[in-house]
Design brief:
By secondary structure, the chain is an alpha/beta fold. Helix content is 29%, strand content 18%. Helix 3 crosses helix 4.
Length: 259
């Protein structure tokens, strides 16, 4: 799977690539905060960085937000240039930057220093309102809730102290496959440092597939976000060729996000 300018409190956007539980997933995603009771706010629409050119070719549009991944073991860059994000900002695109820190103890000081420097570079470049940083997206089941919150509590302050939003991104699959209280188990102790809750959602999350409404699938996360005063965003969403359904059913499932 993998993400008009918007400020920190505006509707937020992201996208999907094919990462997650199944490599056959396809499509891009819309991302946004919960709308006001009587007004639907616009959301940003985007693409995974590796599919950005394909998205533009297929739609004739420039993605409003791009999802960029830094995988575990890669050194955390200390500037916008080192992170290779300038190309997206220059194109008028916002960025959801997923960072998977190296968790070895001897990397902690370097990770903190580089995250602080990266945050400062984002702010000094005027990109803070166009950036969402996520730490170790989809942590279950690679990390326990306690391990994830320890990691997040260690590194999020380095991002946020510079003025850049930092949040969590959780996949819906575990909600019906072993971790029904995912949001609380992985977030309750770090809420003060969480600026948003991101959601990765696919039709294989429930046994109902396309017959289970997408809003019902994401409800455990959106409810938790609203109950704790946090904006939420869809960072990955796609149809899945391994889940039985017609093209019309797939389209209807995705369209549920507009409700």
């Amino acid at each position: 799977g993998p993400d008009a300018s918007s400020g920190p409190d505006d509707a937020q956007g992201g996208n999907a690539d094919a990462q997650g539980d199944d490599g056959s997933r396809e499509a891009d995603a819309a991302t946004g905060t919960e709308p006001d009771a009587d007004v639907l706010k616009p959301v940003l629409m985007g693409a995974d960085a590796t599919g950005n050119a394909e998205f533009s070719k297929a739609t004739g549009l420039t993605a409003q937000v791009v999802r960029v991944y830094l995988t575990g073991g890669d050194s955390i860059p200390n500037s916008v240039t080192a992170a290779k994000l300038t190309q997206y900002y220059s194109a008028g695109e916002s960025v959801v930057y997923s960072i998977k820190p190296d968790l070895s103890p001897d990397s902690e000081d370097t990770n903190k220093s580089n995250l602080a420097a990266l945050s400062a570079s984002i702010v000094s470049g005027g990109y803070a309102s166009k950036t969402w940083i996520a730490l170790h997206h989809e942590p279950y089941h690679e990390l326990t809730g306690a391990q994830f919150q320890t990691m997040y509590g260690t590194y999020a302050p380095s991002v946020r102290s510079g003025g850049v939003r930092c949040g969590v991104i959780y996949q819906t699959y575990p909600l019906t496959h072993g971790e029904a209280t995912y949001a609380a188990d992985y977030t309750s102790g770090i809420l003060a440092d969480v600026d948003y809750i991101g959601i990765d959602v696919y039709p294989d999350s429930t046994s109902g597939g396309y017959s289970t409404g997408i809003l019902d699938v994401i409800a455990p996360f959106t409810t938790y976000a609203k109950d704790n005063g946090k904006p939420f965003q869809i960072d990955e969403v796609a149809v899945d060729s391994t889940v039985t359904g017609t093209q019309a059913q797939q389209a209807s499932w995705l369209a549920g996000l507009a409700n």
